[in-house]
Amino acid sequence: MGGVIHTYLDCVSPYSFYAFRHILRHRDVLASHGVSIELHPVFLGGINVGSGNKPPWTLPAKAKLGASDRRHASRYFGVPESEPPPFFPILSLLPQRAITYIKSAYPRAKFEETFNLYWQWLWYEHHDISKPDVLAKLLQSPQAGFSADQVAEIMAAANDKKWKDELLAKTQEALDKGAFGAPWFWVVRTGEKGEVFDECGFFGSDRFHYMWLFLELPFDDIKIQPGNQSLTDDKAKL
Length: 238
Known about the structure:
It is built from eleven helices and four strands. The chain is of the alpha+beta class.
């Protein structure tokens, strides 16, 4: 058995960052089972509108839980804790168009390194990468390493109809597959000859074990290690 995990992400979503880091961390072991990963930049605002969903911060109960939930997620996924920037949320169209072009025009490693920088700049350093001058500064930073000519090329592409349409098409693709938020996964299970056996959608950065089950992959589920307190001590307290 094998398969493909199509992963739909937006830099405005911190949970997309957790999913991005986690899925890439498991790329090699997934490949050993014949499972590949495809990362797809999308526009989360368009997914929310198209699906009728509302961002979690618009619901007071979800907004209140959000800070502690992100803290727990950061610990679980092994990334530093982050806080939303004061200008959150951003309109992520420009950076998502730019990264769509970068994915098409540059090697995979360059695309992934730059996408990772999006979250670093937005969520940890609080730079508004939806602003053209800030995004250009990110692209030309030592971490991204694009030349001045390449930055001009990328920024021009991000404003070109072709790449605007490409991002919208990928967003619509996610919607057509049932997406209502990000990260969204469309998992395809295939046979030895690549024939498709089944397909299924999964939402959120906490559904990886469901995907492993769907793909029929061997894995160790979350386990609680035994403590020091004896069963006799527990019964004595009842």
